[in-house]
């Protein structure tokens, strides 16, 4: 019980701790993707679902697990070659083709590109620009034989920029006054496509205006208490409601795409970039395929962007043992779990449990290149068993590292330090109630090699005392210290052992406890439980027993409560049932039974003798096939009647026998009539001859 309660308290401490731990993408995401994304019938219902699954598997590095190329490529070819395909259909088909590398001809690409350029010039909404420009960018990445450059890219850029709002959000069209965060993401992605497709350099003043829009957009980002940043979508219209996950994913993809295409320094705050990464990681493993795609697609954009790559600091284990002299180990990875080169990681502060005071420490962690882990040689000397919050910081000393990575300052992580607690001066004594003199005193040990055997009456007291000392010699107060007395009738009494510094002591005055003990004299087992989450030697010890002599209960004294019945007892062995059978009835002699059997068989013997006397033979048995069949059925029917008589004698009742005999009788009448008719006809022919 002590260990279980300690684990529960440890879990509660982890939940209420202010430090939040974010871990990069792991194998659990790969397992979830295999469960959520692989279709049962071998194909997806749409190109959109196909691309989301392919992109998710590609980010996770398990694309070989999905074998859908044949069916998906057929859908891609059909969509790309159809003049009735919408811009959205073409965009999704090209996304799938970018991963599967389907066999699209140069003529197909050229026809699509020509149509897309026309749609860019006639576009009237943000989505038209997004699908048209995005499709041209996809074609550019899939073939170099088709010209996809945009003439007049500045005018296209201005047309998209005209839909922006003062708060950094975008409108879907000039007819829609409402601004959208999700629209801002796809607008930035569209502008990045315009820059990459432009036949000449875009006006720098236009790019500066977009940089200003991005800055305003980031000013409106919302924040959780754990340091995670996210974008919320307040617009609900015909385009559907976008969740914070999809809206934040769209903005991240748009910002990273624009930064890459424009080759501009956007001066994005590293704490917000890291906060967005923390938001996507805080989601854990989404419960549906679409959310999993949004999460991983955004994290992949953050990991491969040229703005700043977020670094995630995490611990392989948050429990350190002073007994085993464990080392503090720290992982520094990108959001997708990739290891990074050696950086400077420092331990800056240590907060004690339940205290806001911190020990200021500036200690470097060493890097193990073989295991790609940072470690602390030894814990600070003043660290004793207990729970702490370690404040760790990734320090970017190199200017090049500062351009590449975003660290977000210090990360607070909960650390639980365990150790072996020393138990000293463990004594049990029986005291005289009046003078307090020790009448019996015995010492117990944790090994439990010897058991105590005590006796006391209601005028005496029982005293239990011991000391608990931490590995550094400090007083240790466990989460639980209980003394239990269990009567031989299974009535239990539990008492809390109080402490004063290192000393733990409890005195039971039996005179004041006789009512609580229900005046039950007899043998009581003594059990001591001491446990804590950071105590490696928590114990549940059977100390022995004490024989109590209590006075007789008065008439109106409370009775002990009924003990619960063990529900598993009904599955145990039952009491043996002894049964004496009555003497068997007297049976007739064996000879008489044999005579009766002979009399039963006598009619059958007479039947056989009668057949012999009548000189029965088979000369008149029909030779023709049909009469022969009826004759055989007639004899089988007679045999069935005889068998029925036998079954009636052995097991059947009269009603069942009569029913069966009725059916057999009708059958015998039919086949017998046919057989006898044949014999009569044959006899008449012989006489006439």
Q: Structural class, from secondary structure content?
A: alpha+beta
Cα(first) to Cα(last) distance is: 111 Å
Q: Mind summarizing the main beta sheet?
A: 5 strands, mixed
Mean pLDDT level: 87
Radius of gyration: 46 Å
User: Which regions contain 5 or more consecutive residues with pLDDT less than 50?
Assistant: 1-19
Provide the helix percentage.
Answer: 40-55%
**Order of adjacent strands in the largest pleated sheet:** 8-9-5-3-11
How many individual helices? 18
Number of strands: 22
Q: Tell me the strand percentage band.
A: 15-25%
Query: Any idea what the shape is?
Result: flat
- Seen as an oligomer or otherwise, the chain set is single chain
Please summarize what this structure is:
With 689 residues, the chain is α+β, with helices and mostly antiparallel strands. 41% of the residues lie in helices and 20% in strands. The protein has a five-stranded mixed beta sheet with strand order 8-9-5-3-11.
Reconstruct the topology from this structure.
Layout: H1 2-16, H2 27-37, H3 47-60, H4 69-81, H5 87-100, H6 106-122, H7 126-142, H8 153-161, H9 181-197, H10 204-219, E1 222-223, E2 229-230, H11 244-262, H12 270-282, H13 289-303, E3 309-314, E4 319-321, E5 328-334, E6 344-352, E7 358-364, E8 366-368, E9 373-376, E10 386-395, H14 399-404, E11 405-406, E12 410-418, E13 422-432, E14 438-443, E15 452-457, E16 460-469, E17 480-487, E18 492-496, E19 498-500, E20 503-509, H15 510-513, E21 522-531, E22 539-549, H16 590-613, H17 625-650, H18 654-688
Parallel strand pairs: 3-11, 4-12, 15-22
Antiparallel strand pairs: 1-2, 3-5, 5-9, 6-7, 6-10, 8-9, 10-12, 13-14, 13-16, 16-20, 17-18, 17-21, 19-20, 21-22
Helix pairs in contact: 2-3, 3-5, 3-13, 4-5, 5-7, 6-7, 7-9, 8-9, 9-11, 11-13, 12-13, 17-18
